[in-house]
Fold each of these.
Amino acid sequence: MPNINLDGKTIEFKQGQTIIEAARDHGIEIPHFCWHPKLSVSGNCRICLVEVEKMPKLVIACSTLASEGMIVHTKNEKVVAAQNAVMEFLLINHPLDCPICDEAGECKLQDYAYKYSVGESRFVEEKVHKDKRVALGPRVMFDGERCISCSRCIRFCDEIAKDPELTFVKRGDRVTIVTYPGEEMDNPYSMNTIDICPVGALTSRDFRFKARVWDMSSTNSICIGCSRGCNTEIWVRNNEILRLVPRHNEDVNSYWMCDHGRLNTFKNVNADSRINSPQIRKDGQLIEKSWDEAVNEAVSKLKLFTKEQIAVIGSAYATCEDNYIIAKFAKTVLGTGNLDYIRHIDPSFADDILRTEDLTPNSLGAELAGIQPSKSGLDIQGILNAIKEKKIKALYLVEDDILEAFPEFENAIAGLELLIVHSTNHNRSTALADLIFPAATYVEKNGTFVNVSGVVQRIHPAISVVEQDRALDGMSMSRLDKFGTKWDRWAAGKKINALPTWKILTSVAKAMGSKIKFNMAEEIFAEMANSIDAFKNLDYDVIGELGAKVKSEISNNVKVS
Amino acid sequence: MEMETPTKRRRIKDLNFWEKIYVPEIIKGLALTFRTMFKPKFTMEYPEVKFEPTGSYRGRPVLVQEENGVERCVACGLCSRVCPALAIEVQAAETELEKERYPVKFEINMLRCIFCGFCEEVCPEEAIVMSKDYEMAFTNREDAIYGKDKLLIPVGKLQDRIGFLRQYK
């Protein structure tokens, strides 16, 4: 492979790479605002100027191709002077907005002002004033004064979202960004521009002013908006999710995620509709009970039915671990083969960027973990018909809303003699349930999802439920979490009394005399790796933060929908 | 080389003759007492008489309220970040005013506050300053958390401190 010499260090590069890419592959960061690894090269910010020997002037590292024998300096006097000058130009018209700017703390301009700027401005004149607080679209707010005209957002809409909506207007220091006449920035990926904006010019209307980035903790997770399984970070303060941002994973979602996943997949966690305790229906009213009482109630009710009268519905929203325990519970404890899950397919949601037509994060994982009817058992349609014909009298429904999916069966389901539901929030099905177990959401438990292309990915708890302690359970902690006491209002966030489905089911199974026993999700996954071919040789360490492929021939054979 | 002989130092408890007989010491002490009786008083009869500190005094931190009744604070959260005792909680929200951002909640836990003045020093807006108020008494933890109702003080009453800051900060 050809080499270049970068600051005295010889590094290899691939033919066709630019200097900035070659340096990045070797862990050397050349400062950049407008360059982004997934966008076309624009070369307008000029902060990546470097000196290449034998070239008459400094060149920009983002658009200069590396070539054999090139000698590049990124830290010598000339380059440092150029970086200073570029920073001074960029800061001339940049307002001193940092105290009110949401980007503060994760702002490239702020960081580079410390790293590459002399820290003093010679500009004493009035700065150019532009429009502030412009709503570019339903989800994105624009501040013209903060913009440094790097054009990342414009290129993102053109190249990644494939929906050109933004453009520069005016010239010189009056240049600003607008949407095309009569258009607004409402493409389904618009909020990615907020992440790639190197300054606070684009901010999220949902997250705006809610919290400082240094007050929050972030936890790696997976989006549950569809079966793509975009890698995300969950940002939490005081046990409340404030925002989701995409996490880079080249094999799954690159740097992006869609606005639906970003905004609509966490609001239920702190909603008023959250179920905060096991509940038993007495005389038509749901009454809060302790876990033991609820488990005993479940056991005594389930024993009243023969195995042909019972059906179990797993969930494509639950983790593989949950579904494995559901399948095991149905087959070995209840002895029923009437086992399936509800598919949520919406072809209109899919696009050729990230979104898939399967709106659940784990249907492949649910099937691999064993949520399939046995040979003589009934599938979902069979179960529904059998409920209508009153052949099935007891239904164990886990983390899904059967009435939302099949509203036409409302009367049939209302006629069930026993409906046990695991649910995170109250919904149409819990309204009919005889017994409700509060289930932990995907942000409150450990586990794995298998995405549409067969990648197993880990989720981690970001919000603690009653049984968890952030420090003792190894969850990520902000400064406030570390030092708060129960008397500090800023540390006394609400905790829900819920448990992961697998934990609830193992205690029900235990009360029914089964020997199923697990202490943590990782143990379940270890057993799955032993007993299920698709997960062979996998464990939580192998999966890591970026996921691992399940055995492909198996994932290809399982057909979802 | 000549060795230096250590001089024997007199210790306080080694009393001399006059001290040992006690009476002259009593007279000395009484003389000091009588002399002091006719000098100006340094003590004050608190709480009947209150101590009025100067601008350099660091009493409880307060928020500056502009003449139009709006708080000067933009809820940037720097005071909360710098506070070594984590006494300050700020929750920002959007306002229609030009400053865009304001504290919808601003609470200082006076049981945590150590009166170090870092919040005042870090504030980019001169919006939180140390007042002259040193009288704080509570009977439970909840009362010790001061909200905006107790923290907002009209700018006119804080001129001493603001003048001091502009001169010395």
Amino acid sequence: MFGQGLLKGLGITFQRLRRPTETQLYPYQQPVLPATSRMFLAMYHDEAGVPACKACMTCQTGCPDHVIRIEKDTENPKVPLSFTVNSGRCTFCGICVELCPFSALHFTGDFERATYLKSDLIYKLVDGSRATGEGEGERHGR
Amino acid sequence: MVTFNRADACAGTETVLLNIGPQHPSTHGVTHILVELSGETVVAAKPILGYLHRGIEKLAEYRTWQQDLVYTDRLDYVSQIGNEWAYCRAVERLTAIEVPERAEWIRTLFCELNRITSHIMWYAGVTMDIGTMGTPFIYAFKARERIYDFFEAVTGARMMYNYFRFGGVRCDVAPGLLEDIHDYLGGEFLELMDDLDALLLGNEIVQSRMKGIGAFTTAQLVEWGITGPFLRASGLAQDLRKDAPYGAYDKVEFAVPTSTVSDSFARCEVRMAEMREAASICRQVIERMPEGDISVKVPRLLKPEAGEVYVRTESPRGELGIYLVSDGGPKPYRFRVRSPIFYNISALPKMLPGWKLQDALVIFGGIDTSMGEIDR
Amino acid sequence: MSGLGWNTVLWLAGLFALMALTALIGVYWERKVIGHFQARRGPLHHGWHGLLQLPADMVKMISKEDVVPTKADRMLFQVAPMFVAVPAFTSLAAMTFMPGVAFVDMRHGLFFVFAMQTVMPVGFALIGWSCDNKYTLLGGLRAAAQLISYEIPMLLAAMGVVMSVGSMRLTDIAQAQASGPWFIVRQPIGFVIFSLAVLAEINRTPFDMPEAESELVAGYHTEYSGMKFGLVQLAEYTALLMGSYLIATLFLGGWNMPLLPASPVWLFLKTVLLMTSTMWFRATFPRLRVDTLMEMSWKILIPVALANIMLVASLMLVLPKRWF
């Protein structure tokens, strides 16, 4: 009979009134992200602040979008002088983390990095041969 | 088929050019269709493309074979895994890389999950097109969110997965997660599908809007180069998963939903049935997935021998082809995508004339566009 | 009521308060209700459960720049919303809440409401024409055509009630249902036709073709911003209130409730319930096609409404007066 489908549809929407809502209250409640989530890039370092990076340039050449820029120490070529990440260009593909032969890079769960200026998206993981600890804040989620 | 055209009977009337898009509530992405209206009847239509052109095909020529994989996600950003698979298959054929058995099954699983999310996107679009407030849209997106959660747990991203690798996949799937997916697709998802069916197919208003609208013959559709569910709704069971099986498609049982009516409503029915079939394929894959390696070792700087290859896959929208030419170097000489939607949308000037403006948008919704793939 | 006493001023103030409150609370209520139908929460951020959204919206509406398109017909563009808003607000004057409690207890209240609604299509057509925009033109003409088409079944369906009561005074119509069964029981066909026609008359889903956002962006009010948009919106919610009120009074017993004392509370509850159910429809249904809509009015509703009048007339002859 005509109208049966309409009534059924009304029934479906009415049932939803009783069920809990699906809204995620994002700014008030942080989402639970899986450990695999690819967010901003960070670097492992020891307690003295010596970065795990050996300036082998694999990530710089492997990155499809030229996000990473490494300056080598002229005296000691196995130490990076600076390690700059232009996250405004980053597509979060994870190739750098995958390629790194020393497993120096990793992703943090930090995704709240909106800035007013594009230049603020450029940050250094290593500056003056010392790890800056950038992006190693509190990891959201588990 | 032209229902009626009263324009000729009226004296001194003029046609009106109406821009649908590029910024318009009903266009999917940045589609721009210029329609010429006589009253509310479409007399001519012209899709205008290029608003989302990012030059991916050219960019790919300046990057290594591995780096290009990142860009395939961004072709059709609604069925990302399908693009990755097409490209991986092309490169694997070019370099004769053997893919381990388990990797093929994992690929099949995620491709089918992606087919569900892609069809949900179509469902959301088409229900909005016919004028709901977005209620079916939000119900459907609940399923999409759940499936994207599975994707995120495995691949680390919700949209741009970058999950497939030449000769396998990047990482294995945890057994617990496989069980979760199996349970979800066997229970909650099917219940939701019943609701979605009732809100779209069972609704008499939808039936009155869609039945008999956009009825084209199979011969017409073949002539226009239409592929995918749009073609299958006309009765031609052309599906590359059956016709030229890849992955684990020849080892699982599934039907190719078709319909003989070939109108907009039949297209909806076919897509809804395809979602259920995809869920059934996923469950079979999880039940019968073999153990073993998930990838083979591939040199970091891949240099395929000079040659060319064309690989066809069945994307949720039709036949997705990747054509690659190698000159023996570390970068592709030519990277070309045969995007199904580009061919489907090219037929709009032939499809739309004669229909009312509202019908035209229903027909357009049946194509299920994704501009990222058309403009590349 | 005689002359321009304090009484009149108070009633006028009440009228304006009612109309402004309906629109504001209506928008908030609609957002909340549709949100929950869609498994969302609706407004949430400002104030308790988003209640401060109302003043925020109002301030936004008033303080927004009033854009007039360069090629628009300036005069018409400014005036056209009045053609929609003024009749909508004026029709509120006919509302009665209890015997003796009314803005103006008109002898031809129902007639007055319908007369006011007849002006609105002119406003929609003018809005559509004045903007020099194809979306508004199509939307405005659709709205005008739809309103004109659905006025007829609405009138014809109301005719059955008027015949039965023998009066067009809204008080009399509601009072007639105090002792006997409500008109929804006495004239179910009339109720269905009247409700459908009212739904179309106030441009609600599934009859919201005029603003069909999927093809016409926002229909006739595409080009309006600021308070002019606000006026059109106000008029739409007022029409929604009036439509729900009419259904409640004509067919659902007005302020009467079986076994319970008559009170305006019942009328209020019925009206709110009807308004909420239009939101429920809006949350569930897609919209019809324009030609199906017209066909439905001219080929189905009008003949059935005429037949309904014949039926009511013959039943009035046959059955005892108490029932018809």
